[in-house]
Amino acid sequence: MYFDKLEDQQDLFQEIILQLWKSVDSFKGDSEFSSWMYRVALNTAIVFFKKQKRKPDKYASIKMEPISPSPYDNEKDLQLVHFYNAVKELNKIEKALILQYIEGFSGKEIAENLGLSEVNVRVRTNRTKNKLQQIIKNQGYEF
Fold it and tell me: What is the DSSP secondary structure assignment for residue 10, as one 8-state letter?
């Protein structure tokens, strides 16, 4: 979700694997191993994104048309298309927050992973859900 281009996604994946490998000795067991991995991956993604943002975009002059969903008659698939299109419009912290929320992470786990307070996570989660609803409405679709 952090990058649209496949090459950037692949580069980020490799960077995450490298960082996990380099920092596996720092896992202390204070949390679930999966939470620790998620935290390393998320931090790596944010740092990687900031580095990429500083690079000039060689594709900036190319006008990209939005990809329309394929004509598939399944309502759930249509909902997912609208949802993920809306998620792409969120900022990086909002994306990380909402994706962890959907994956079933607790408020405490999300707070630890993002370096926020639990209260801040609750407030941002509600604001992000409202923002997603508004984006989806602006797309002309309502659940």
Answer: H
Handedness of CA 16, 20, 26, 32 (dihedral sign): positive
Residue 140 zone, left/alpha/beta (φ > 0; ψ -120 to 50; rest): left
Cβ neighbours of 26 (radius 10 Å)? 8
Residues 68-83: b if buried by 16+ CB within 10 A, e if exposed: eeeeeeeeeebeebbb
What global pTM score does this model have? 0.53
Mean pLDDT taken over the chain: 79
pLDDT in the model for residue 124: 94
Contact, 95 vs 119, CB < 8 A?
A: no
Q: What is the mean pLDDT of residues 32-54?
A: 77
What angle do the packed helices 118-138 and 75-87 form, to 10 degrees? Answer: 120
Give me the half-sphere count of Cα atoms (radius 13 Å) on the Cβ side of residue 94: 15
Q: What angle do CA 6, 88, 10 make, to 5 degrees?
A: 20
Q: What are the tens digits of pLDDT across the range 60-109? A: 554 556 655 555 456 777 777 888 888 888 988 898 888 888 888 889 98
